[in-house]
Task: structure prediction
Amino acid sequence: MADQEQTTTFRIRDLWTDAMRRIIATQDRFESRIRDLQNTAGSSFNNIRNRLDRFAGRHMDVINDIVGEIPGANRAIGLLANPYVAAGAAALAFGTAAVKATQYAQQWEGKMAEANVTAKLSRKELKGLSDDLLKIGGRNVGELMEVPATFNSLLSADLSVEESLKALEPSLRAAKAGFTDAATAAQAGVGVMNSSGESITKVFDVLFATVDKGAAEFADIARYLPKIIPNARAAGLALDETAGAWAFLTSQGIKSEQATTLMENAIKTLSSKDRISDFNKLGVAIFDQKGKILPLTSIIEQLSKKLDGLTDKEKIAKLGSLGLDQQAATAFNIMVQDVDKLKEAIDTTTNSAGAADQAYKDAAQSGDSWAIVGNKMLVIWEKFGEQFLPIVEKTGQWVLDTINYFEKLNEESIVFRDYLSALGEGFNYLFKIATAPLQIIWNQFNNISRLIDVVSDKLGLSGGKFEVMYLKARPGLIWIWEILKQIGDVAGKILSGDIPGMIKAFKEFKLPSLEELIDKQQKELAGKWVDRVKDVTQPGKSLTPAKTNPYSGLDLSGMGGKDKGSGKSGGGVSGGGGVKNITITIQQLLPGMTVNATQVTEAAGEIGRMIQEELVKMISDTTLVVE
Result:
């Protein structure tokens, strides 16, 4: 069989051609190169892996130290590696975010409800208004939650919802450009708008042109300029020239409040029939041929020409002939000093279109973009929270309806009230069952106490005599208890097979000293008595002269106690049957006392204090021994 296989193999080899042999040789060389490449690559990868391992080894301790400094970091990383825990953490984070977003949405809803007291919109209309305010607030840098309050301020200024909505964004931008709060900017804009009849855009342009040409902050302009606009409009002066003249006065070193007073009096002059007549007599026209008041710059130019070339004394006389009060005279005198600058200021406020936008751009800061991003995120946050408001509302309504239902049922249904009463009794019964073991223990303690009282009465041991009898027997009982504990310890070692422990327990076994137990109890009882005496001798308390030791009747002589003082068994302080009362004669203390006082009451108080201190000291230093 082997020869046949060999013959077959030989025949197959005979079939190999030169080409096939070359192919086989090439394949062998290819496989050899592949093996070499694998070995080289494996070595390279192993080298890289070893380097990474060494790197990790060098830095792992540092990484662990950093993680260890973060409370709970190791546990958090380990937990998050678990997909179920990670999913739970994500759900918890989502729930927390939902609660926070809902709270923010409720806060926004409260602000909108406050504005709706004035707006009086339907629920659907209020929702649309809320969306509009969110859009406006989201593209401005002011705090988003201030937007509804600013809108409410505009509504409160007797503007309609549409007018307030148009004035809102200019007010927010004016607040940013004027570095003030939105409510102040809104009130200033609306106040000037209502008194001047100009649009809100025109008003803010004029106000910021006033900031440009004057020497006052926007907050001052917002506060004072609205005060003079109504009278200026009544006199026929336009908003822009009134604001320009006010800005000119502030640029001359006049404070905002004083400039307001000067302008008010100057405007009253131009509204007075007598003063207008005096101006005409001087050759200064106030009105044109159609009866319309001339521009303020024209009036001041005429007055300046009439005063040109005059001495200061003559100027004062000319102005005095106009019948002006001091404030009005000061205002006109300042304006005629520099007519060109006055015209420049009024020209700036007159041609103020775009001033508010330019001020907004000039007030830009590096963090404004992030402030807008933050507001846009808050808008998304509020929208997210809105999705849960219906759930909150429905849940709250369901709870309220449930409470109302049961309240009504309790009021109207006797059956329900009886059911509640029975339910309460049931819970009370269950509570009693649950606490029955404790109650049994408590009752047994009470029964034992009552039994002791009865036995004491029968044996004539009432009035503390039973306690005295127990104290006599107590050292012996403790002696027996200590022996039983040692026997129990030995028995436990034997049962548990603890041979070394058993041997040690046998070696350490000894009878307790009854004398030591008696002495220990004597010291405890004596200490208790000393503490009680000290307590009644504290300031504000009285010491009863016949106060006696309640343990003085205790006699432990039969138990083998030793008298530390006399050497007799069962001795006391000076022998006998118990703790002796200590008698201290007050006269013995007096020779050592010297009292200096200017009044009788002081002397009496000082003597009392010294006696009390000496008594306490002597009692504290006295050693009481119980027989």
Notes: The chain is about 75% helix and 0% strand.
